[in-house]
Amino acid sequence: MTNVQEMIERRERLLGPGNPLFYEDPVHLVKGEGVWLHDADGNRYLDCYNNVPCVGHCHPRVVAALCDQASKLNTHTRYLHENILDYAERLLGKFDESLDRVALACTGSEANDLALRIARVATGGDGFICTNATYHGNTTAVAQLSSIFEPIGGYGENIRMVPWPDAYRAPENLGGEALADIYADEVRTAIESLTANGIKFAGMIACPIFANEGLPNVPDAYMEKAIAYVRDAGGVYIADEVQSGFGRTGDWWGHQQSGVVPDIVTLGKPMGAGHPISGVVARGELLDDYRRHEMYFNTFGGNPVSCAVAMAVLNVIDDEGLVAKAAEVGEYVLQGFTELQEQHELIGDVRGRGLFFGIELVNDRKSKEPATENAKTIVNAMRHKGVLMSKIGEHDNVLKLRPPLCFSRENADFLIKTLDDVLVAA
Q: d(Cα 291, Cα 295) in Å, to the nearest integer?
């Protein structure tokens, strides 16, 4: 039996304090397979959280692609190699034809950092807008746009944060286009504020499904209206698809739901199903203009092994029909969660697209007071019953679930039954 406390103490001694761990009783994992994770004591957990291994943990085709290419060659991109070209062609084929260039990196933070640089060169501006409950990475630049973790030294004068489109707690109980107007007007006001302070506007970055904000039901036409303000002011729209991309929502990309094609898209997490690779997909003129001003080079970005792995991920998603499966199984899970909402007063709202879900917990459905402590208790209770999940949102009261795309109805039944049991005991 593993000594978890000893590992925690060793971790802090070697890595220092402040390295976060999930759960009050952290899990010591030693093996992953499909939708399952196994700990050192032989316990099995249904993984309903990790969207990085999007095709399932240790998928044999992904592992084989990694091992095969690693046994042949791995180097940087200053030598010619077909893998990066083959992958770029395949990846870009999944996007709107206007998005016809890609630059590869290693992490979502790097991708978002590069996107900001591209936007600055394209617009000549330095003013950016994000929402007031989001996260876009941990470089110095993108930390300025990560409102749920304030950076050391605070935020710069060039940053404006706007309220995220919260349909559940809508002002004056509005809905539809009227609500979209209210939230879109916040974007317009932020642009005007930057201009009034002599700061040239560069663009807005947002997760198209507002995952960190709690996965809200976005008011119809909000993105269309908000991005119209952005573009009218000469800015660009950066869609952070690090969480929402690669079939997660039942479409290839989260921005497809709004019908608004971004100027720049950033990719990461599931791109390599556990192998570190990320990317920036953009309109050709934007990336080309940036490269004329600055040479961007990333030692490991786009290396032959990473591209072989990423190509295998695309192959598995296509060959196993995982985008359609995410939509079909996701609808089944959402129906199950909706039925739980009818039985448990603690559930105030249920939201989701594809295999990405948010369950908002409230102490009172009328006042919608966030049930933050209940969310923490439930996440920990689910861990002890063999289901891994997390929580998120501005009030830290939204249960967050995003299982691998190979998630089945049988897995869903186990998840729903376990959550029901935990809610009964809550």
A: 6
- Return the SS3 of 61: helix
Over residues 246-269, mean pLDDT: 97
Task: For the sheet with 29-33, list strands across it.
Answer: 29-33, 36-39, 44-47, 387-388
Nearest to 81 by CA among 313, 308, 309, 312: 308
Q: Please answer whether residues 360 and 397 qualify as being in contact, where contact means their C-beta atoms are separated by less than 8 angstroms.
A: yes
Q: Which residue's entry shows tokens 């049988």?
A: 410
> How many angstroms separate the Cα of 140 from the Cα of each of 105, 113, 120, 252, 359?
17, 9, 15, 30, 32
Backbone angles phi, psi at 341, to 5 degrees: -60, -35
Nearest-angstrom CA–CA distance, 313 and 393: 29
Q: Are residues 243 and 292 in the same domain?
A: yes
Question: At residue 115, what is the residue type?
Answer: A
DSSP 34: B
- Residue 263: what pLDDT? 98
The reported pLDDT for the residue numbered 149 is: 87
CATH of the domain at 214: 3.40.640.10
Residue 331 above 70 pLDDT? yes
Same domain, 125 and 244: yes
| pLDDT range class, residue 173, cuts 50, 70, 90 | confident
The answer on pLDDT for 175 being more than 80 is yes
Cα-Cα-Cα-Cα dihedral sign, residues 328, 361, 372, 27: negative
Per-residue pLDDT band for 18 (boundaries 50, 70, 90) equals confident
The enclosing domain of 18 has a CATH number of 3.90.1150.10
How many CB atoms lie under 10 A from the CB of residue 361? 27
Same-domain pairing of 181 and 252: yes
Joined tokens for residue 329:
């199984």
- Could you give the CA distance from residue 207 to residue 216 in angstroms, rounded to a whole number? 11
197: exposed, middle or buried (Cβ count in 10 Å: 0-12, 13-18, 19+): exposed
